[in-house]
């Protein structure tokens, strides 16, 4: 290729090679040359839009990328590169593209410092990422990914970020040196209102993660925002109110809404934020979270006197400055806000937009969301950016383009300025849950690249077809059939909206699907686990046509069936998607690719999670029918289905734990521990009135099985009394014996990472932390946990490095463990 990227004179040179020409509409001379060569006329291009044209009947061809502006030129260049990468020169197509949603951003709850926390700081995701927020390489990589996926802004959410970002002239002592993290033994739960993060035990036990002066902090963020601007990504700062974390009551500042010093401090902080950061695009606020007892008028008067006046100060001081002002419509009324903020709405240099929580905390619930109807009638001509909260999917690679496309197309475009996508229970910084993390740790947005790409690319162009995504997968993973991978991935991912659309807890603390958990109040259980009774009582999402279990049972009992999707139908839909994923997974092999192996395991985990919910919904329906009608068939169906649900959860946990650290501490539902939650999964069987009869998990195909009875062992007996084992029997580690172990000689064809899959049964509810010794080194540990009964065999696995040839694997099992075999796999090699 000859890529034209300098002056017009250079373009005139005859190179005899195919040429790529990139220019914006402002380059009239090149535009004229393109038309002279016979290119099709350009259609109207909006900001960030682009056109691709081809001229020449035979080689050399000229491929023209025309951007409405530099952003459109960047997107057009990325489009052209993608067409070549996923196909060939012949696959380049002429096209015209304009963005569907003008603003496509991310909601990033930023953990700046223990003294200036976000809402999400009291969780593992934040504590593992505070230092990353002050690493330019993190932001460089993060911003590049966002640009690639067609996002164009980042909103940084924090309770009170000013002490970590600016030095306010009249309040200089508030500016904070260094970056600190607390070393306190955290509680599991803190108030949902964001209070208590400044408790003395938190602030008095700290470590310095990075030494920085305020001047260095300012220079850092100026560099980050400047880099983002070069990638067509704007920065916004959004706050909850009134929080004064980091001020330490200096100058008499408090969170009292009537404190005039506080008002002055906030106004000057907002002003200084813009004066300090010339590339800062806008600011946003929420009123209500910590304005206890204040009326609507008092809240909005405070917001106007502080944030609005601060912005008005900025545009007065910098007449050419354009500022976006975001007012979140939360705990307040849109029309009244518009009246109070009329001076901003009328100002020619200020764009005033609302923000609205479009799908509560769960975008993965339904493609139709009903909450905004009254709101859009109130706002008139004022546009809105929609909050799209993903507080569902943190662990696993997710990807369902059909759901994302339909969801975006259902957002009312005429009222939209765009959307921002993110979480309140999770920080999308660097990945910290994988058992074998990269160094430096991989970015979450890199791990979940397909997930984030779908929301960004389809936000820019929701008419992108699935064939493009199949091609992208094929280019990234040439060792598998990309269409099968696409379908398996999409089927497993469909579990999330189908389940949450039926079992609807609107807010993050009311439902977390990957743990079947919430806080105890919404769960109606002390543990927070959503048991089978809660699956009966909790209604479906109102944007679906799902019928609740009580309504369905009443209809059956009274011979008056209701229109809509019955619980049985929902169960069958989830099961069908899970089963489709299972069938496709049988035909997909990672071929030594580390990332693909990880993705396939995640698809398998999500499919098992779906199987769990499919059987649990069916069991809950059968139990409700039995309670209403006393037909024994419903009782037996409920017992069977809840045992099948427990089987699927045990498999789900085993697969997930082979990849990830657990438990996960979240700020909304506390600790999510798949092993610990299994006791409540089993207790559902007791609620129904049955006994645990879980189906055993078969050995994973593709490995080399080393039977327990052929191994060396001490403190155990060979047995064959129970059923479900492989080989001739199993080894029973009943009773306490010192130095009990089982040991295999494993022969490998090459050095590298291998997966050791230990199949066992354990009736007791205890968890045994069992050392694993590899070639004399006792550096590993396997957690063996209940399988439900001595006749239920499941496996847990770990990845280890083995040498070529003979390796000695010794396991030290806990009391009561029945060991069936060791299954060994050659794992990822690149």
Please, could you describe this protein's structure?
The chain is an alpha/beta fold and about 850 residues long. It is about 35% helix and about 20% strand. It is built from 26 helices and 28 strands. It has an 8-stranded parallel beta barrel with strand order 6-7-10-11-12-13-14-15, surrounded by 4 helices. A hairpin with a 2-residue loop joins strand 24 (about 770-775) and strand 25 (about 775-785). The protein is globular, with a radius of gyration of 29 Å. About 50% of the residues are buried. The model is unreliable at about 1-5 (pLDDT under 50).
Tell me the distance between the termini.
Answer: 31 Å
Q: Please tally the helical runs, counting DSSP H or I stretches of 4 or more residues.
A: 26
Low-confidence runs (pLDDT<50, min 5 residues)? 1-6
Biggest sheet details: 8 strands, parallel, barrel
| SS-based class | alpha/beta
Considering DSSP H and I runs of 4 or more, what fraction of the residues is helical? Answer: 25-40%
Tell me how many strands there are. Answer: 28
The side-by-side strand order for the widest beta sheet comes to 6-7-10-11-12-13-14-15
Q: Over the alpha carbons, how many angstroms does the gyration radius reach? A: 29 Å
Strand % is 15-25%
The shape, in one word, is: globular
- The average pLDDT score comes to 95
Summarize the entry for a quick read:
This protein has 830 residues and is of the alpha/beta class. It is built from 26 helices and 28 strands.
Task: Give structural attributes.
830 residues; 6-stranded antiparallel beta sheet
Topology:
Elements (H helix, E strand, L loop, with lengths): L1 E3 L3 H4 L7 E6 L3 H9 L13 E6 L6 E6 L2 H17 L8 E3 L5 E7 L14 H4 L8 H13 L4 E6 L3 H4 L13 E4 L17 H4 L2 E5 L3 H16 L4 E6 L20 H17 L3 E6 L10 H22 L5 E6 L5 H7 L1 H5 L3 E8 L15 H7 L4 E6 L11 H10 L5 E7 L21 H4 L1 H12 L5 H11 L5 H12 L1 H8 L17 H4 L8 H6 L11 H9 L9 H19 L8 H36 L2 H26 L6 E3 L3 E3 L1 H15 L15 E4 L4 E3 L2 E3 L10 E4 L7 E8 L3 E10 L6 E7 L2 E8 L9 E9 L2 E7 L5 E10 L4
Parallel strand pairs: 1-2, 2-4, 6-7, 6-15, 7-10, 10-11, 11-12, 12-13, 13-14, 14-15
Antiparallel strand pairs: 3-4, 3-5, 8-9, 16-17, 18-28, 19-22, 20-21, 21-28, 22-27, 23-26, 23-28, 24-25, 24-27
Helix pairs in contact: 5-8, 9-10, 14-16, 17-18, 18-23, 18-24, 19-23, 22-24, 23-24, 24-25, 25-26
């Amino acid at each position: 290729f000859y890529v034209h990227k300098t002056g017009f004179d250079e373009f005139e040179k005859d190179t005899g090679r195919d040429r790529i020409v990139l220019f914006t509409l402002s380059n009239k001379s090149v535009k004229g040359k393109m038309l002279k060569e016979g290119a099709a006329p350009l259609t109207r291009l909006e900001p960030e839009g682009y056109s691709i044209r081809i001229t020449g009947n035979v080689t050399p061809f000229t491929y023209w990328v025309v951007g409405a502006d530099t952003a459109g030129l960047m997107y057009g260049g990325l489009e052209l590169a993608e067409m070549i990468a996923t196909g060939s020169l012949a696959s380049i197509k002429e096209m015209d593209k304009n963005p569907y949603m003008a603003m496509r951003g991310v909601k990033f709850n930023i953990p700046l410092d223990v003294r200036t926390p976000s809402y999400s700081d009291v969780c593992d995701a934040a504590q593992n990422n505070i230092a990353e927020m002050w690493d330019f390489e993190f932001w460089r990589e993060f911003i590049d990914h966002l640009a690639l996926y067609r996002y164009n802004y980042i909103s940084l959410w924090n309770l009170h970020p000013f002490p970590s970002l600016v030095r306010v002239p009249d309040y200089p002592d508030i500016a904070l040196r260094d970056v600190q993290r607390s070393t306190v033994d955290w509680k599991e739960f803190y108030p949902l209102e964001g209070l208590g993060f400044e408790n003395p035990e938190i602030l008095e036990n700290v470590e310095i993660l990075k030494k920085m002066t305020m001047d260095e902090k300012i220079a850092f963020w100026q560099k980050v925002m400047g880099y983002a601007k070069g990638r067509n990504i704007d920065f916004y700062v959004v706050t909850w109110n009134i929080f004064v974390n980091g001020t330490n009551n200096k100058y008499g500042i408090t969170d009292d809404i009537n404190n005039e010093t506080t008002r002055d401090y906030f106004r000057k902080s907002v002003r200084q934020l813009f004066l300090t950061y010339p590339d800062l695009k806008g600011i946003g606020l929420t009123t209500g979270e910590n304005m206890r007892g204040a009326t609507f008028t008092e809240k909005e008067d405070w917001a106007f006197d502080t944030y609005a006046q601060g912005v008005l100060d900025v545009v007065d001081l910098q007449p050419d400055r354009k500022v976006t002002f975001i007012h979140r419509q939360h705990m307040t009324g849109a029309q009244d806000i518009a009246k109070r903020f009329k001076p901003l709405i009328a100002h020619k240099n200020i764009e005033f937009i609302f923000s609205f929580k479009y799908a509560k905390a769960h975008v993965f619930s339904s493609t139709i969301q009903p909450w905004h109807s009254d709101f859009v009638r109130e706002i008139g001509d004022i546009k809105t950016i929609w909050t799209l909260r993903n507080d569902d999917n943190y662990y696993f690679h997710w990807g369902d383009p059909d759901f994302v496309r339909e969801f975006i197309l259902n957002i009312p475009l005429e009222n939209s300025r765009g959307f921002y996508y993110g979480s309140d229970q999770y920080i999308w910084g660097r990945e910290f849950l994988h058992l074998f993390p990269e160094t430096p740790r991989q970015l979450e947005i890199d791990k979940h690249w397909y997930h984030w790409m779908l929301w960004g690319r389809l936000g820019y162009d929701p008419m992108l077809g699935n064939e493009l995504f199949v091609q992208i997968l094929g280019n990234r993973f040439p060792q598998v059939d990309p269409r099968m991978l696409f379908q398996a991935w999409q089927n497993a991912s469909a579990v999330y909206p189908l389940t949450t659309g039926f079992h609807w807890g609107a807010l993050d603390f009311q439902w977390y699907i990957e743990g079947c958990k919430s806080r105890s109040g919404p769960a109606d259980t002390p543990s927070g686990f959503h048991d089978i009774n809660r699956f009966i009582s909790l209604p479906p999402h109102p944007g679906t046509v799902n019928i609740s279990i009580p309504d369905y049972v009443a209809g059956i009992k009274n011979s008056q069936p209701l229109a809509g999707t019955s619980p049985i139908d929902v169960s069958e839909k989830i099961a069908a998607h899970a089963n489709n994923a299972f069938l496709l997974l049988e035909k997909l092999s990672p071929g030594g690719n580390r990332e693909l192996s990880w993705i396939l395991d995640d698809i398998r985990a999500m499919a098992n999670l779906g199987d769990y919910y499919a059987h649990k919904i069916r069991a809950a329906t059968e139990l409700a029918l039995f309670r209403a009608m006393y037909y024994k068939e419903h009782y037996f169906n409920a017992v069977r289905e809840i045992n099948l649900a427990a089987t699927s959860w045990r498999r789900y946990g085993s697969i997930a734990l082979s990849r990830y650290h657990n438990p996960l501490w979240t700020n909304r539902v506390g600790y999510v521990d798949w092993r610990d939650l299994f006791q409540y999964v089993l207790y559902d069987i007791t609620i129904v009135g049955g006994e645990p009869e879980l189906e055993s998990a078969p050995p994973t195909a593709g490995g080399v099985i080393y039977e327990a009875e052929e191994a060396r062992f001490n403190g155990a007996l060979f047995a064959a009394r129970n059923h479900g084992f492989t080989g001739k029997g199993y080894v029973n580690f009943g009773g306490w014996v010192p130095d009990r172990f089982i040991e295999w000689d494993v022969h490998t064809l090459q050095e590298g990472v291998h997966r050791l899959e230990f199949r066992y049964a354990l009736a007791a509810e205890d968890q045994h932390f069992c050392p694993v010794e590899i070639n004399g080194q006792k550096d590993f540990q396997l957690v063996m946990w209940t399988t439900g009964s001595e006749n239920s065999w499941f496996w847990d696995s770990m990845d280890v490095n083995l040498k070529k040839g003979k390796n000695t694997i010794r396991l030290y099992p806990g009391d009561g463990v029945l060991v069936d075999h060791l299954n060994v796999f050659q794992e990822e090699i690149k």
